[in-house]
Specification:
Blueprint: E1 2-8, E2 11-17, H1 23-30, E3 49-52, E4 55-58, E5 72-73, H2 75-78, H3 86-93, H4 103-116, H5 122-129, H6 139-159
Helix pairs in contact: 3-6
Organism: Pantoea wallisii
GO molecular function: 2 iron, 2 sulfur cluster binding; metal ion binding; oxidoreductase activity
InterPro entries: 2Fe-2S-bd, 2Fe-2S-bd_dom_sf, 2Fe-2S_ferredoxin-like_sf, 2Fe-2S_ferredoxin-type, 2Fe2S_fd_BS, Beta-grasp_dom_sf, Diverse_Oxidoreductases
Length: 161
């Protein structure tokens, strides 16, 4: 077991885990962050997606110890109840959830996409989200949410001093 600092959502936490313990397990079990979900455990479904230095990453296949010196953002750190991130707001407004299990991955992947490409076209959106599995069939609402998020992000950028 190793004790080490882990920067999550802008705060440094002292955690203890084996070198090969997944970031997902540390986030959920040690830090009590339930945004990232356990889906497949193979990095294929997207339910466990977090941002590492702003890039979407599958936390179920990344050892926490390996990212101990990098900034990690979970769904809980993207925005707050009082100040939602534009992507979170867009997903609410578009009612882009049914069971909600895929939402963490969809939202975090969208946030990373819009950070890298503020105005993606439909092909870029579909490509970015293609690795996130949704069994409920809310794909159209999710695409509408991403398009709404683009608008909200642009409005927020224009309003910034």
């Amino acid at each position: 077991m190793h004790a080490y600092p882990l920067e999550v959502n802008g705060k440094t936490h002292q955690v203890t885990s084996y070198r090969d313990t997944s970031l997902l397990l540390v986030l959920r079990n040690e830090l009590q962050l339930n945004g990232p979900k356990y889906g497949c455990g193979l990095g294929e479904c997207g339910a466990c997606t977090v941002l590492i230095e702003g890039v979407a990453a599958r936390s179920c296949v990344i050892p926490a110890y390996g990212v101990r010196q990098r900034a990690i953002t979970t769904l809980e750190g993207l925005g707050t109840r009082d100040a939602l991130h534009p992507v979170q707001q867009a997903f609410i407004e578009a009612q882009a959830a049914q069971c909600g299990y895929c939402l963490n991955g969809m939202i975090m992947t969208t946030a990373a996409l819009l950070r890298a490409h503020p105005c993606p076209d439909d092909q870029q959106i579909r490509a970015a989200l293609s690795g996130n599995l949704c069994r409920c069939g809310t794909h159209q609402e999710i695409l509408c949410a991403v398009r709404r998020a683009i608008t909200l992000c642009l409005q927020q950028t224009e309003a910034a001093p």
